[in-house]
Design brief:
Two copies of one chain form a homodimer. Chain A contains eleven helices and 18 strands. Chain A folds into two domains: 3-173, 3-Layer(aba) Sandwich (Carbamate kinase); 255-399, VC0802-like (2-Layer Sandwich). Chain A has helices at residues 16-31, 46-57, 63-87, 119-126, 152-163, 197-205, 213-222, 275-285, 314-324, 355-365, 389-399, and strands at 3-8, 35-40, 92-95, 102-104, 113-116, 130-134, 137-139, 145-147, 168-173, 194-196, 226-230, 238-241, 254-270, 290-295, 302-309, 332-345, 372-376, 379-385. Chain A is α/β, with parallel strands linked by helices. Chain A starts with a strand and ends in an 18-residue tail after the last helix. In chain A, α1 (16-31) links the parallel β1 and β2 (35-40). In chain A, strands 3-6-2-1-9-11-12-10 form an eight-stranded mixed β-sheet, with helices on both faces. Chain A has a six-stranded antiparallel β-sheet with strand order 14-15-13-16-18-17. Chain A is globular, with a radius of gyration of 23 Å. Chains A and B meet through α1, α2 and α3 of A and α1, α2 and α3 of B. Chains A, B: One of its GO terms (cellular component) is cytosol. Chains A, B: Catalyzes the phosphorylation of the beta-carboxyl group of aspartic acid with ATP to yield 4-phospho-L-aspartate, which is involved in the branched biosynthetic pathway leading to the biosynthesis of amino acids threonine, isoleucine and methionine. Chains A, B: Substrate binds at residues 47, 74. Chains A, B: It is an enzyme of class 2 (transferase).
Chain lengths: 417, 417
Amino acid sequence: MSLYVMKFGGSSVGDTERMKRVARRIVEKQDEGHQCVVVVSAMGDTTDDLIDQAKLLNPEPPAREMDMLMTTGEQISMALLSMAIHQLGRSCTSFTGWQAGFRTESVHGKARITDILPKRVIQALNNNQIVVVAGFQGMTDDGEITTFGRGGSDTTAVALAAAIKADVCEIYTDVDGIYSTDPRIVKCARKLEEISYDEMLELANLGAAVLHPRAVEYAKHHKVRLVVRSSFNYNEGTVVKEETSMEQGVVVSGIAYDKNVARISILGVADIPGVLADVFGALAKAGINVDIIVQSGVQNGEADFSFTVSLSESEHALKVIENLRDHVPYREVNSEHNLVKVSIVGAGMISHPGVAAQMFDVISKQGVSIKMVSTSEIKTSCVIEGGNLEQVVKALHTAYNLDTDAQVFVGGPQDRR
Amino acid sequence: MSLYVMKFGGSSVGDTERMKRVARRIVEKQDEGHQCVVVVSAMGDTTDDLIDQAKLLNPEPPAREMDMLMTTGEQISMALLSMAIHQLGRSCTSFTGWQAGFRTESVHGKARITDILPKRVIQALNNNQIVVVAGFQGMTDDGEITTFGRGGSDTTAVALAAAIKADVCEIYTDVDGIYSTDPRIVKCARKLEEISYDEMLELANLGAAVLHPRAVEYAKHHKVRLVVRSSFNYNEGTVVKEETSMEQGVVVSGIAYDKNVARISILGVADIPGVLADVFGALAKAGINVDIIVQSGVQNGEADFSFTVSLSESEHALKVIENLRDHVPYREVNSEHNLVKVSIVGAGMISHPGVAAQMFDVISKQGVSIKMVSTSEIKTSCVIEGGNLEQVVKALHTAYNLDTDAQVFVGGPQDRR
């Protein structure tokens, strides 16, 4: 007998028919002799519908009241799924985030978990109940309802799995697992049997939407064995764990891309100590996330540097820099928007020198110029023109021996919460 | 400065436009220098939509999970209304039932309030906040979410008004107040300026849907000054309070009717001691509410008796009696379904003998036969054929001097939760 945490995203419980299928899936797991704790997201479009209603009443609704509103989405899912499980003749108890013992810091919209006191969950398991928990939500010590932000239900599942010492945390979604790259671009993308936490973390951070980076971080920290698999079929998924048995010749595990990239360059900045700190301090203060930073050498007491931000934040970033002009003298600022970041990720890169060089070579052989580069121990990212994305991803996929013979067909949009 | 509890029913907050109007109404009250605690029901059809979804998954959903589901309706209303109030530039905090301190017994679907600990409500008021509370819900000492059943939000409002010692509890609905009878039947029905708790209790129990009997009972017990008024205009409503200044010649305050009536008669029952207790004990055990009971005299050691139940429970009641046959011998059972109960209510009946006799006289002059009668200190009810309802109510309304010259126009269905 194993203890499973099973997380189902919004599209897996998108309507009552899907809800019934999920209920059967859970009951099958129990029939195999296992204990089941289920974490569930809001049904399909519920979250968007609630946001739309809120915006009609207040274009900038207070974060506290948004949390009050949004948490009802998961509470509805949780109660309905519990009813569907009862209908199959099983005992089942649902819990809101606060009932399941999720305590958080006092921040609305993106609270971090401070503690989990899963007493009621464990009691219910001991009474042979299936337990259904609302994802994405918790409570502060003052009894305020909070939410975890994007990917919050994944985090609920992983954190709960750690707290109740579950054997496995299964993330059910609408794809079969983690792929070597986006199967919508590369038809012969390969489903990975397993991947390490670190690789998954890089992939998640680099734009692979299947798992939220925060949930992966939590899993890594608490050594929770994660399985990503489809709620629509019984295919084996991808195991995310500490160490993976390195396949022969596989240096790169996956290729990720991010279309949400803009480059900003500041030219002719006076090379005064502290200038970089001033610029990036101001951007941080404005809540803008900076990704890659590249500084060229100093000439005639002036330096040029470039950095990337997400497309949606680029206008804001330009304004921040405009406002700095009196304080930080520079000659010129320019920006570029039609860019993408392509990244190769693989734990094997640590022991295989020259992987980055090979990447540059593959890209240049496609006649594509590399605008910026960023590296870490297990990933290399290149910023290129957006129009070259598909061609470059395909070429890299082939170059790193990731192609399979099989073609992958992907359904709807992936669960994101 | 007065402390107001203002309760808005589901039709008053049926869509975002209505929600905005309610928000303005609350802000106006604050502008007059008052403190406001608002109790809100689920928006329009939300409750029915949730029930429909539940039934698709489980025709008999567990009561606990239904409470989990249903309470989201009020939580959505509460958060949205709070956002609308913020949009008008006011500080506002919303609370779920459990956050507002409603403690209940451990019964799902119709829990009674055991205690109210409104610490957070009072704190928020002291910080000059408008407070919005989700109606209809509370929590057990074990942290289980419960609901109060039909009329639950009225009960929330009245109970909270008592707990925080509010000066007035205003029930906003889609009619202008309490009427002498249903204005949909009698166009010249009169809006009452005031009515006593006892009269209101009888009217509510007898089918007037504007206020739930339980809320009236609570108001009477805690002497909460209630005002029933429209959320769609600024007309004065009806004040419900302990003593009313009796108007000259007004003996009967209101006429109520109930279309949900079935009569069951058991004929030729052996007159053994305990027979009545056996029959009505069995019905009570089956959860069937019996209203009027009439027993005829005993002849030849056999008795006949009749009683009324609600139409929807009559089939079930007949089955219960069928099953009793071995235990309680009787000759025949029959039933009648096309019936209504018409009632006159008035505190003045105590000091004016002959009011009931006058009622029988009015009805018989309409050529309508009375099938059953029931009386209390301040009401008399007659069961008649359903087809005669309108004619009889109009005749009684005129006979007791309740007609006004004005015609009343009534909008949509009344708030029922």
